[in-house]
Amino acid sequence: MKRLLMFLKDYKKETVLAPLFKLLEAFFELMVPLVMAAIIDRGISGPDTLFIWKMGAVLLALGIVGLISAVTAQFFAAKAAVGFATKLRQALFAHIQSLSFTNIDRTGTERLITRMTSDVNQVQNGVNMVLRLFLRSPIIVFGAMIMAFTIDVKSALIFVVAIPVLAVIVFGILLVSLPLYKKVQTKLEKLLGITRENLTGVRVIRAFHQEAEEEERFQEENNTLANLQMYVGKISACMNPVTYIVVNAALIALIYTGAVQVNVGNLTQGEVIAIINYMSQILVELIKLANLIITITKALASADRVAAVLEVQENTTSVKTEDGVDGTETIADRQGRTSIDRSESKPYLIFDHVSLTYEGAGDKSLDNLNFSVNKGDTVGIIGGTGSGKSSLVNLIPGFYPATEGNIYLEGKNLKEISEQELRARIGIVPQKAVLFKGTIRSNLQWGKEDATEEEMWQALEIAQAKEVVEAKDGMLDAEVTQSGKNLSGGQRQRLTIARALVKKPEILILDDSASALDYATDARLRQALRGLGREITTFIVSQRASSIRHADLIIVLDDGEVAGM
Predict the structure, then answer these.
(1) Tens digit of pLDDT for each residue in 53-71?
(2) How many Å apart are CA 531 and CA 378, to the nearest integer?
(3) Contact at 8 Å (CB) between 558 and 384?
(4) Residue 303, number of CB atoms within 10 A of its CB
(5) Beta pairing, strands 404-409 & 412-413
(6) Which of 409, 419, 432, 501 lies at a CB distance of 3.0 to 4.6 Å from 459, suitable for a disulfide?
(7) Which residue in 369, 441, 409 sits closest to 506, CA to CA?
């Protein structure tokens, strides 16, 4: 939670004023029983009607000022809590965007979604309730006890016994329920994962007629979550009735003690009523405190989970220089110690004994890749399913860091090139064609924000998507639904290729991105790409031998190793 408090730094005024006005409200509330005692002892017993009217006006004034204080406090508390949650959510989203594929794979998409939504909302509620009640409730409880001592010490001793008992109950339930609420959030993540998996794969589920099995699996996890929530809810629900029992027992003791004291003349009837009112105030505040404790328990559990995501750092890979100091090797450092001779050929891109092992994997996905590519070459990568084709091209933009060896671009280690610079030089078309909600124009502008219409149409023509766009109402301004669901698979692939071409990259990576195209369209696309000249170095991953047969270099992969070139 301490890590998250930094997001409250812009709301220092609100975090001070909210509890301050709540304390002001508490002060006025503590005055009410004394005024009531005066009305009973002097106004009613007197009788003094004018005094009753005066004290009634005082009660009304206390109520109005208390109401204004309460509303003001809640305004500042809400402003601070909502602002805090907004900044936290923005920071969390920005941090997730900066994470590598390895860290995202390790954390899990469903966990990140839960932290961005449910957990942040829980923390927001916790901050709001703390600012409103965390100081007010203890002040009322101990203030009421002190005020009772000013009236009668013997009766007030009952408060001294009751309050510690109530504290043990409240904090005992807190200690039991805190780890359970963490389990609830973990189960919620699992349920969200199943939901996301089903929504993503709904077509596959229906194609294999697995609806009943998936419903059963969801129901099982849903029932597990519900049972755990009911269990922890029952524990938390014990707080109010147990608190009522203790407070009502104290009230009975107060009434008995007060009656005896009135009978012997040590107390007036108004003073007994005041002491009972103070006990009633304690009851109300302890109920609020009990609910506050439950909210804080949930908030703390969620805060730990959000902080855990913010603490995930990028994997930094360094090598040892010859003098033993950590650093990043340059080509000069490794001259004469590699099988690749860079001094003569000076190739554009070099894979120097590169291996890749995914996080948590038992074996290498790529092993000892050693080859070089000249600028402007077309490189074809082919192999069976699971041979490591996508893993290889994912190393070039740095989506996954090489676990062994180094990759050099124009003689510079990829580790020395900033992510922003590297990605700006590379155009990527992933296996799964992903378009975003908006228009064709807005999707193409992902490649280049200030792209002109001429540049867009040129990219569309090369990607064989020009006729697709021209057939749409509005053409470049035609609507694209979420994930491009209003387009066919082939249309989506061609538009994603055009999006990569708009930025005019130095390196173009086509990761099996023409699988939905027919052979004639695929052939026209390859011919158009060859017409771009030697300025673009192209990597084509494909299952079709015909798609890569004219490449300058063909790499055949088998189980993560180069079977032939």
Answers:
(1) 888 898 899 889 989 988 9
(2) 12
(3) yes
(4) 23
(5) antiparallel
(6) 501
(7) 409
- Other residues' Cβ atoms within 10 Å of the Cβ of residue 409: 20
- Whether CATH 3.60.21.10 fits 332-564: no
Each residue's pLDDT tens digit, 301-315: 788 888 888 887 754
Domain 2-310, CATH class in plain words: mainly alpha
Q: What tokens were used for 57?
A: 């006006």
Strand partners, 351: 371, 407
Task: Give the tens place of pLDDT for each residue, 458-470.
Answer: 888 888 888 888 8
Domain ranges of the chain: 2-310, 332-564
d(C-alpha 187, C-alpha 222), whole Å = 9
Give per-residue pLDDT as tens, 440-461.
Answer: 888 888 877 788 888 888 888 8
Q: At what angle do helices 269-310 and 49-98 cross, to 10 degrees?
A: 10
Nearest partner of 465 among 432, 513, 431, 430, judged by Cα: 513
DSSP letters for 99-146:
S-HHHHHHH-HHHHHHIIIIIHHHHHHHHHHIIIIITHHHHHHHHHHH
